[in-house]
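User: I'm preparing a small set of examples for a lab meeting where we compare how different chains pack in three dimensions. I only have the primary sequence for this one, and I'd like the structure in token form so I can line it up with the others. Please keep the answer compact; I'll paste it straight into my notes.
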Amino acid sequence: AESSTIWFTIIHKETGQFMGHHSIKVTEPVKNRNRLLRISMLPKFWGKGYGTEVVRFTVNRSLRALRDQCVSLNVLEGNAAAIIV
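Assistant: Understood. Below is the structure token output for the 85-residue chain.
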């Protein structure tokens, strides 16, 4: 199976400041409709709900617009906030 990754930059809505990036890995064949989501943010933005906002927005768009069946998030050990999302 082949795969490609779509990368996005996370920018603060009000200040235009770079906050981090996230990506969606698309694996072929598309019939499985499964995606892998990754997110990385600068530490000064941790614990403020920005990551949750990005993940919820991306999952919502992926399930509704792309008609995906499953979106998974890779989480590093000890990141309890990401596990909750």
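A couple of notes for your slides: The radius of gyration is 13 Å. The chain has a mean pLDDT of 83.

User: Perfect, thanks.
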